[in-house]
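Dear Dr. K.,

Following up on our conversation at the group meeting, I've run the structure prediction for HTH-type transcriptional regulator PksA from Salinispora arenicola. I'm pasting the input sequence below exactly as I used it, so you can double-check it against your construct before we proceed with anything downstream. Let me know if the numbering doesn't match what you have in your notebook.
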Amino acid sequence: MPKIVDHDARRAELAEAMWRVVYRDGVAAATVRSIAAEAGWSPSALRHYFATQTDLLIFAMEHATAKITERFAAESWTGPPLETVQRALEQLLPLDQQRRREAEVWLLLASRAQTDPSAQRRAREADDGIRQVVNLAVDALAAAGLLAHGADHGAEKARLHALLDGLTLHALANAELMPPGQVRALLADHLGSLARPRGTDATR
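The predicted structure tokens came back this morning:
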């Protein structure tokens, strides 16, 4: 009888091997050869699943997205609305090594999106996932009365999304100038400002 191969199990095995390499050595180190060595496979066997480096990067993004989803599912999401929203948005920021590696995968995938249609599609999906969390966050603040009267909800969602992207890029580019505490403080300051009309002096 022909040997039955459980492809889902083999992809899961590769995912774990890939993420061990990424977590230990960084995204740039996650090549077909390094992941094959980590998994105890031959490079030719690995290429059966990933024909190109972009395929491998997309797979890494899928795995990162699964990790983020697991973290959201594990939370109880109880407590004051402002604190709950802050905790939710922090899941998307590079505040520890795991989340930093996830952000690195996203950044590399986004850089390839300019020339590779498959990378572009996956990067757009990742961006849509972030936008969904941002939309839920702003809607939750609005429902709790924590948005300024007359605020443009669509504009606030776009601003918050841009802030998350900017904080992520700054934290990845220069961790010394943008450590986790600073990232958290800037996000908290922005969320607090949403309850004040533009141009209002917060000290009054």
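Two things stood out to me. The chain has two domains: 1-51, 55-193. Residues 117-143 form the longest helix (27 residues).

Best regards,
J.T.
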